[in-house]
């Protein structure tokens, strides 16, 4: 059986890694185009392998998923996020998923539709009345922050939740600084400034979330996600302790806040660049007039949903999945040693011409005629660890986007393709300015 050393790939070790750090998306696209669906790069004695073909991705994310754990980059997030669904492994993760997944069933999510719509209508009314220019990314982050404050923590006042958002943002910036510098090679026991910033942020998040949990315990039962987590029990009747509640609440906060804000930002940017797609969206919304949308309207908003799905193909918020095998394992007919960093490059898969015709084009209509293969489109990950909040996120993005375009017009002031910052999520590297006016 071939070994990892037999795989094609760029040579140069650190030079290759530095090229990847400077332009990870371009490097992945270039190397896959040159070396095929699976390539390897060796850096300081350790292997980095990228796998994008459907069979290989299925092996990593599903068929042999028990052999794989999160890569070091994601595992390091546990210092901030604790042992929630994003960072935990093995039996601990499986037990947590059984507790958390039922709180995000489709029937429960319908309750939150009114929250999505109310916040979107409030934001667009205020923005249209004030006029002026706005940075879409900043504004969508603020909008989804209000949504997560009410849907997750059942609070109207976002001050404490806003503080959580800001310190998580600081910690993410510090985490990225570590990964894109020589600090990634510094042993864990050596203190450095970025590590201090992450640890300080973690302490703040712990204090704020524990405070919100204590407040929620003192109030009557409700339908918010935190209450559902408080009430969740496993087969033995055991629920989450305060640490477990905190870890899952912070993980849900990160997933429900930033990823949806990014999907909305990029969707509005793409609509601004494609007037025909925007006109079709407005035509779909015309029969609803100005009445608030509801969960019952969601299945009928097929073009709006297609816009969101196509946006997450072009600009997937979770653009890369990292895994590492705990023992030697076969992937794609090749033996990978334990400790190999295995990447599933979602953004490269989403722009693969074999999977999608005209992959660089924004074509929402492609989602009206059928679905791609199971391992071709992974906006929420795939396999056993697919995001449990995917239905929540999709409904939120669709209803918010529709509510915004019901009541306002958006003039994109910088219509070129945005510069991208591929960090933990895929973000715009600079502001996305728009002018807002009443519809």
How would you describe what is shown here?
Strand 10 and strand 11 (426-428) form a beta hairpin. This protein has a single domain, classed as Cytochrome p450 (Orthogonal Bundle), CATH 1.10.630. It is of the alpha+beta class and 439 residues long. It contains 17 helices and twelve strands. 51% of the residues lie in helices and 11% in strands. Helix 8 (113-130) runs antiparallel to helix 9 (136-153), helix 9 runs antiparallel to helix 13 and helix 15 crosses helix 17. The longest helix is centred in the middle third of the chain and has 32 residues, at 242-273.
Quick recap of the structure?
The protein is α+β, with helices and mostly antiparallel strands. The protein has 17 helices and 12 strands. The protein has helices spanning 14-22, 24-35, 54-63, 72-75, 78-81, 90-100, 106-109, 113-130, 136-153, 159-179, 193-217, 225-231, 242-273, 275-285, 302-314, 346-350, 390-407, and strands at residues 38-43, 46-51, 68-70, 133-135, 321-325, 329-331, 334-336, 341-344, 408-412, 420-422, 426-428, 433-438.
